[in-house]
Amino acid sequence: MIEFNGVSLRYDDSRPPELADIDLSVDEGELALVVGRTGVGKSTLLGAINGLVPHFTGGRLSGRVVVGGLDTRDHPPRELAEVVGRVGQDPVAGFVADTVEEELAYGMEQLGVVSATMRKRVEETLDLLGVAELRSRSLATLSGGQQQRVAIGAALVTAPSVLVLDEPTSALDPGASEEVLAAVTRLVHDLGTTVVMAEHRLERAVQYADSVIVLPGDGVVRSGDPAQLMIDSPVAPPVVELGRLCGWSPLPLSVRDARRAARDLRPRLGEVPTRRREAGEAVLRARGVTVTYRERVAVRDIDLDLAAGTVTALMGRNGSGKSSLLWALQGSGRRAAGSVLVGGKETAGRDTAQRAGSVGLVPQTAADLLYLETVGEECAVSGPGARELLERLAPGIDDAQNPRDLSEGQRLSLVLAIQLAAGPKVLLLDEPTRGLDYAAKHRLAEQLDHLARAGHAVLVATHDVEFVAGSADRVVVLADGDVIADGPTADVVASSPIFAPQVAKVLAPVPLLTVPDVAVALGGSR
Ligand SMILES: Nc1ncnc2c1ncn2[C@@H]1O[C@H](COP(=O)(O)OP(=O)(O)OP(=O)(O)O)[C@@H](O)[C@H]1O
Ligand SMILES: Nc1ncnc2c1ncn2[C@@H]1O[C@H](COP(=O)(O)OP(=O)(O)OP(=O)(O)O)[C@@H](O)[C@H]1O
């Protein structure tokens, strides 16, 4: 269905090619998962399938890409759109209509689908993606995860024979992610749709893949059987890491496989390691915080203290109020009632400069904070240490590069470096692991640990259960604007069907959360 013959792509002659003489084929009715480190060229590979690369991105492409019999050199992206549906990394950038229903109908209108069929497909898609109650909402007012579901719906609704999904679950809560991937798998199995998907959170996706395409770097690709390629893939989900640690063969790709392999492991586990950060005094004190959008209450009368020296995770379904709470705490966001004190001072009504050393927020759409022409300039204006931090978080970015041309993960790393360099007392992060590979997440966790140990308080809104397991002391769960759980990480997540990380599911009832924890517990038993 998709053939790459001798495909090379280069954005910039002074750098090595992003894709170097690639041969690749994906069969009809196959789900191929594209994996690799941040900035390695996954989006570039996906973009070449529907002609977006190089038509819209620039760069020089050589070789041949044929999709559903169409050579992408002879057919512009507009014509390829009849065969290929695509969901990009930034759903908002792809929206063309104002409301959810209009967005879903748009693609079919372009293809001239008759209105009765159109209506039926829109209804089916609203149900499939769980967005029926949002049907008449304006796209701009949806939460990040709600927008991502609509974007996926808009790509599915025309039933294209090829679907290209670039990190389709990056903003989805764990439950929604499972539902969306199950829906995609159903299209593959029942309709023979061909799917090529890039996803950093392999724990969510690898068990659905028929084949894996690994980009190890240097522009080459390797493709084939998922379990086989996971043996030495540069990125791997926790169950695979656990399998590598324990020497299991074949490697497990799902929790279910790993549970079987782990039967003999539980008795060998020694002392369960405990986390060791000491909580200090509360540096942020919020009382009665309420956020409303007209009659909709997004955050309801929340009290929250954040202690110095701690990392707290804020979790909860898409639309449960996490971003609204973060902005209200930071002070510039909407707040219908309540007070938020940092170091005894109210955060509302202050300007950016006054807030700088006290409270910082890294937003979900991190690019909003970038406005200069080069990476070097952005780092230079944001104070000492930003450049070094960036190098730690995402090594190898050129100072002269325009932030616009960075990969998603690289751009986020830049914004993080800028905010971290300002060293605010309280750091609020909205979905900071979107688009980050495992190594980058690990470095981010180290950075947050470093900040916490230096007496800062960190609050991270996230759907990334694995990141939470490895980095947070405490977890606060929101549902429909209320706090419904608040406690030490292991207590809140270990027994939760939704928030438990893979290792906790594999080893239950032993309350271990991460592969490094298991390594310690195994060492202790010898
Ligand atoms: N339009 C462009 N112009 C110049 N360089 C680009 C452009 N788009 C991407 N790049 C560079 O090409 C490389 C590959 O980018 P790409 O977006 O394909 O990576 P990725 O693997 O999808 O990364 P991520 O996991 O962060 O999404 C990166 O180093 C990026 O900075
Ligand atoms: N400007 C707005 N106008 C109307 N409703 C809004 C607006 N912004 C957010 N909402 C609604 O408020 C609720 C909370 O949104 P919020 O963005 O805080 O959720 P979230 O927990 O951060 O979601 P996600 O996990 O998807 O990012 C959602 O139902 C959302 O649709």
From TrEMBL:
Domain of life where this protein originates: Bacteria
PROSITE patterns found in the cross-reference section: ABC_TRANSPORTER_1, ABC_TRANSPORTER_2
InterPro entries named among the record's database cross-references: AAA+_ATPase, ABC_transporter-like_ATP-bd, ABC_transporter-like_CS, ABC_transpr_CbiO/EcfA_su, ECF_ABC_transporter_ATP-bd, P-loop_NTPase
Keywords: ATP-binding, Nucleotide-binding, Transport
All copies of domain ABC transporter, residue ranges: 2-242, 284-505
One GO cellular component term noted in the UniProt record for this chain: ATP-binding cassette (ABC) transporter complex
GO MF entry, a single one: ATPase-coupled transmembrane transporter activity
Pfam families registered for this protein in UniProt: ABC_tran (PF00005)
Family membership: Belongs to the ABC transporter superfamily.
Name of this chain's protein: ATP-binding cassette domain-containing protein
